[in-house]
Design goal:
The protein is of the alpha/beta class and 434 residues long. The protein has two domains: 139 residues, Rossmann fold, CATH 3.40.50; 282 residues, no CATH class. Helices cover 44% and strands 16% of the residues. The protein contains 19 helices and 14 strands. The chain has a five-stranded parallel sheet with strand order 2-3-4-1-5, with helices on both faces. A hairpin with a 2-residue loop joins strand 13 and strand 14. The radius of gyration is 23 Å and the shape is globular. It starts with 5 loop residues before the first helix and ends in a 9-residue tail after the last strand.
């Protein structure tokens, strides 16, 4: 399956100034698959991959001298083949299982820069926050692989040729002639999400039941990681926080509330659980800003935030959202899809490197997102609607107060401009900032 990150991986592999690569990403986002594909396209298949977590021999190889030539000899012996700098891609999977392996990246950078080393880990963020772990700052290049976006989903299901059409309509603000067909694909994506295994299953047979089975298996793996990489008390709090996200997003006000995690819950108790989920790449945080003037970072209130799941499909599974209802136009209006749709937009903007922020004005107005865009004098308001009912007092309040030169509304309506508000279909969220 085509992944957008492959372009940057190829650039890394071809760069004469590259450093060892650290590829972040939640479990099951496709890191190993992507690095293997990189080896096929850029190294004629010449690669050696080690699972540091599973292979005790590999961990032992890093426990003594970290001199690169010695390490390369040991790893070649374990692999049963020569690892040749400049020709072989060395992949260290689940590198967070060995602090010494992580530390060795510094020495590969300094003493053997001709060797292509790519290290990946599903819980790197969690591991480096544990006592005894040290990140080789300044000695590695970093990339993050997130779940597949809608454009990557279109490619996987055979509609990749339509991506350029959507981008063209976004750039020029003209109606998409395939609007209804793209909306149908969007509702499918909302259920399937972007975990590669789920997308592959759907592309193969279109069976939502099989997709849901894959998603539930991934959720089980996440629960196992919570138990493995945290103390029993921490694990319970992490799982309670994780399990509360559907209820958090079902409220009219999506601000995260600790009392929904557990009665009487407080930040001091559950704040570390949120930090763990963020470090593991399982959630994204959207922080409140009290002012639309730039720079928005100066107006952040870290105590008020929303939490989204990293993958909308997993949120749909965790929420027990019935695919038959969500993909049927008649039933869809009768179920609450607001939180899931907003999660999709947050996921799309995060993939494009847009910091997640929302705006409130006391208790009178709340805007889903506010973003900085080139050439704009104030934060651009972004409103999300799950249907074509696009009335909103909050957007009116924001525009009246800050007078932005543009405002964005994502909904089921086609591209266009209405009352000075730019209409963007939900399926085109991946174009914002992309």
């Amino acid at each position: 399956m085509r992944r957008n990150l492959m372009i940057r991986l190829k650039d890394w592999a071809a760069s004469p100034n590259r450093k060892p690569l650290l590829l972040y990403g939640a479990r099951q986002t496709g890191k190993t698959y992507l690095l293997t594909e990189l080896a096929e396209t850029m190294f004629s298949g010449e690669h050696v991959r080690f699972d540091v977590e599973r292979d005790a021999r590999v961990r032992a190889a890093f426990e003594r001298d970290l001199e690169p030539s010695i390490l390369l000899r040991r790893l070649s012996q374990i692999a049963g083949r020569v690892i040749e700098p400049g020709r072989t891609l060395l992949i260290l999977d689940e590198v967070q299982a060995s602090n010494r392996a992580l530390a060795a990246l510094k020495y590969f950078c300094e003493d053997m820069p001709q060797l292509h080393v790519a290290a990946a880990g599903s819980l790197l963020g969690v591991a480096v926050n544990r006592q005894g772990f040290s990140m080789p700052v300044g000695k590695v290049d970093t990339l993050t692989l997130r779940p597949m976006g809608f454009d990557e989903f279109l490619e996987a299901v055979g509609d990749g040729a339509l991506i350029a059409e959507i981008r063209d309509c976004y750039e020029h603000g003209v109606a998409c002639y395939l609007h209804e067909a793209m909306l149908e694909r969007f509702w499918q994506y909302l259920i399937v999400g972007g975990m590669p295994e789920a997308v592959s299953t759907f592309a193969e047979n279109g069976d939502y039941a099989s997709v849901r089975d894959r998603q539930l298996n991934i959720l089980d793996l996440y629960a196992a990681d919570m138990a493995k990489y945290a103390t029993p008390v921490e694990s319970a709090r992490i799982q309670d926080t994780w399990n509360s996200i559907p209820a958090q997003l079902a409220k009219e006000n999506h601000k995260f509330q600790y009392k929904l995690v557990r009665s009487g819950g407080r930040a001091a108790v559950y704040g570390p659980a949120i930090a763990w989920l963020l470090a593991a790449g399982l959630v994204e945080r959207c922080v409140r800003v009290s002012d639309g003037r730039l720079p928005l970072a100066m107006h952040e209130d870290a105590s008020a935030f929303k939490i989204y799941m990293g993958d909308t499909g997993l949120l749909a599974a965790r929420s027990e959202l019935d695919p038959a209802l969500a993909t049927d136009a008649g039933y869809r209006r009768r179920i609450d899809l607001g939180g899931v749709v907003e999660n999709h937009v947050a996921q799309a903007m995060t993939a494009n490197g847009i910091p997640l922020r929302y705006w409130t004005s006391g208790n009178t107005a709340e805007l889903d997102f506010v973003i900085q865009m080139p050439g704009e004098p104030v934060g651009v308001p972004v409103e999300v609607k799950s249907s074509d009912n696009t009335r909103s007092r909050s957007l009116t309040v924001y525009r009246g107060k800050y007078e932005p030169t543009q405002a964005i509304r994502l909904s089921t309506k086609n591209f266009g401009v209405e009352n000075g508000i730019r209409s963007i279909p939900l399926y085109a969220a991946f174009c914002i900032g992309g």
